[in-house]
Design brief:
Keywords: Hydrolase. The chain is α+β, with helices and mostly antiparallel strands. The chain is built from two helices and eight strands, in the order ββαββαββββ. It has a single domain, classed as Thiol Ester Dehydrase, Chain A (Roll), CATH 3.10.129. The chain has an eight-stranded antiparallel β-sheet with strand order 1-2-3-4-6-7-8-5, with helices on one face. A hairpin with a 7-residue loop joins strand 3 and strand 4. The chain is globular and about 45 Å long.
Length: 149
């Protein structure tokens, strides 16, 4: 999760934290919002815009997969400490389409955090409608000291 978080004061994400999109890949899709009021049930969300749609008018599957992947890392933060991780595997089952204007929320959990890999699962929903369920595996990554190539 970006260190540059601000609290949202109005709209559908009022009370949530907003990560500034920045110039990374996630910035192309975000902004993302985080509800950390219950550290054991962190939520990650965004609002679908026209730029998130595919040619058929639904939220692009790649956009939903990006939210799932990002969420897996957010759920893993308490298990990473000062470390980092990379995605080893991300499996997803598309259940229903998302639409422009939808507030899409990811919830999930880490099911096991080992020495080298972290396993998690979650869902993306718009209200009561399940859009996507996912499981993933993250590999812990050693952080190189500054100046090492």
């Amino acid at each position: 999760m970006s260190a540059d978080l601000s609290t949202v004061t109005e709209g559908p994400f009022a009370g949530w934290k907003r990560a500034e999109p920045g110039d990374t890949f996630n910035g192309l899709i975000g902004a993302y919002y985080y509800d950390t009021s219950d550290p054991t049930r962190v939520k990650v969300g965004f609002q679908a815009e026209k730029r998130h749609l595919n040619g058929g008018g639904s939220v692009h599957g790649g956009c939903l997969l990006t939210l799932a992947d990002t969420s897996l890392f957010v759920f893993a933060i308490p298990h990473l400490g000062d470390g980092a991780a990379v995605t080893l595997q991300l499996d997803a089952q598309f259940q229903a389409p998302g639409r422009e204007g939808d507030i899409i929320i990811a919830t999930g959990e880490i099911t096991r955090a080992g020495q080298t890999v972290i396993f998690g699962r979650g869902e993306l929903r718009c209200g009561d409608k399940l859009l996507l369920s996912f499981t993933g595996i993250l590999a812990r990554k050693k952080i190189k000291p500054q100046g090492d190539a």
